[in-house]
Write a structure and sequence with these properties.
Length: 476
């Protein structure tokens, strides 16, 4: 899809009533934020950040060791960042897809695949056991080709996945269009087992409820200013300081991901990349018939610059992706959540994909930063003599992988040797991003190269081939 708005009046009408807010959190039953941290508190484990990673870390720690005191400190509100802004695709992959895993960790890919499937199964089991009402749908996902060069790419992906135990179905043009009616589809690859769909905000709020029921204390609107040792002794606890209070803890997990937290080192390995999303009004029965989509699969196209989209429980279409952007200096600012150019581009692409939905209005438009690493997957780092661990960099697939990231972070900070901590993926950090202004220039160059590749039948130019040899990249 090109970058020209093919029907500007249609696009402008579709967006004129869209509220600049997140669909998932725009509801009256969202939890009331807890009180900020005031005064000094003592805890066995302190967790910085109440997104998916922090919430999973709290739940897993409290379930594994009842009676362990766990305190979570959040700068904004629970799920404020990418955790409540994403599409709600929960993937079994820990490596941002099988192809990326094979590229970086071929010797342990079978292990990573097994651990990923186990992680997804345990995540779903937790949702069901604790009766978390988050719209869990075991719908699978559908990759679609929208250009001729992508059709053999899907066939290669099908062979690769089947070779590693995946159950997939390769679809020709008529088969894929019979599942979802779009004139842009040329082929498809259906994966029934490796992705489930959720309402991400309700999953966050459900994990909050579970954590509190296990005795975890959560303080919101409490930005952490610094973390330092309480004394010079090697075994001294750590002090997690906020504007009006502090938590003294034996162990600390920092899970701020794309947001700049109290630890500067992760910014070398994880940078914030902005993603933008639209959501339509609920579709009528007639509109639903016009598009089919009876399987309710999550959908992604397979271009380098790709869209992801899905149906919500009330039959809205959530539509996002494609135009990822990085701002100089890793800037994160609420004003960047809205982008007229990107939201108009997304709306134009939406009506190209579903021309039969002309006249549908978008009710919500939003954006936010996701944390990405040069290997497109999570990275962990230990500091403070092993008493503090940071984790982040899921690159858009964190709804599922964050649970694994949290469990591994707990293993590391508790100095427990497990199958997870012995993984090369965990033990070796990715190549760091260069400092500014080289970082910004490199990302801008890579974005242009990705677009040229899509315009040139997927052929990767010199710059992308150079990054491939380094084993690094930038995701759209």
């Amino acid at each position: 899809m090109n970058n020209d708005h093919g029907n500007r009046p249609l696009v402008e009408r579709s967006l004129e009533d869209a509220r600049p807010t997140i669909l998932w959190t725009d509801r009256p039953d969202r939890p009331t934020p807890s009180d900020p941290l005031v005064g000094a508190r003592r805890s066995d484990l302190a967790i910085v950040g109440a997104g998916f990673t922090g919430l999973w870390a709290a739940v897993l720690a409290a379930e594994a060791e009842p009676g362990r005191s766990v305190t979570v400190v959040e700068a904004e509100t629970v799920g404020f960042g990418a955790s409540a802004r994403n599409g709600g695709f929960v993937s079994a992959s820990l490596t941002h897809g099988l192809a990326n895993g094979l590229r970086h960790w071929p010797d342990e890919i079978e292990q990573l695949e097994r651990l990923g499937r186990q992680n997804l199964a345990e995540l779903c089991e937790t949702i069901e056991r604790h009766e978390i009402s988050c719209g869990l749908e075991r719908s699978g996902d559908l990759d679609v080709a929208t250009a001729e060069w992508q059709v053999p790419e899907l066939a290669a992906a099908a062979a690769r996945r089947e070779a590693h135990g995946h159950r997939v179905q390769l679809l020709d043009q008529s088969q894929v269009r019979s599942r979802i009616a779009s004139p842009t589809y040329l082929a498809g690859l259906f994966n029934p087992d490796t992705v489930v769909m959720v309402d991400p905000a309700r999953l966050c709020w459900g994990l909050l409820r579970v954590a509190e029921s296990l005795g975890v204390t959560i303080y919101e609107r409490s930005p952490v200013q610094h973390i330092k040792a309480a004394g010079r002794d090697p075994g001294s606890p750590l002090i997690v300081a906020t504007p009006n209070g502090s938590v003294t803890a034996d162990r600390v997990v920092v899970a701020t991901n794309a947001y700049r937290g109290p630890v500067r080192t992760p910014t070398r390995f994880v940078i914030p990349v902005y993603d933008h999303v639209l959501a339509t009004e609920p579709l009528s029965d007639q509109q639903m018939v016009s598009i089919g989509w009876e399987g309710r699969e999550g959908v992604s196209d397979v271009a380098n610059q790709f869209h992801y989209y899905r149906l919500t429980v009330d039959n809205r279409i959530l539509w996002g992706g494609y135009d990822a952007s990085y701002h100089f200096g890793g800037r994160v600012d609420p004003r960047l959540d809205q982008s007229d150019d990107t939201h108009e581009l997304l709306a134009d692409h939406f009506f190209t994909t579903f021309p039969q939905l002309e006249g549908v209005r978008f009710t919500h438009r939003w954006g936010g930063p996701i944390g990405t690493s040069t290997k497109f997957s999570a990275t962990w780092g230990l500091s403070k003599r092993g008493r503090m661990v940071t984790v982040g960099g899921y690159t858009g697939l964190g709804v599922g992988a964050s649970r694994f990231g949290a469990q591994t972070a707990l293993d590391l900070v508790d100095r427990i040797s497990t199958e997870r901590t012995e993984l090369q993926m965990v033990r070796q950090r990715p190549l760091p991003f260069p400092p500014e202004p080289v970082r910004w220039a490199g990302v801008a160059l890579t974005r242009r190269a990705i677009q040229r590749a899509d315009d040139n039948e997927g052929r990767r130019g010199l710059w992308l081939r150079f990054l491939d040899r380094l084993g690094v990249g930038f995701d759209s």
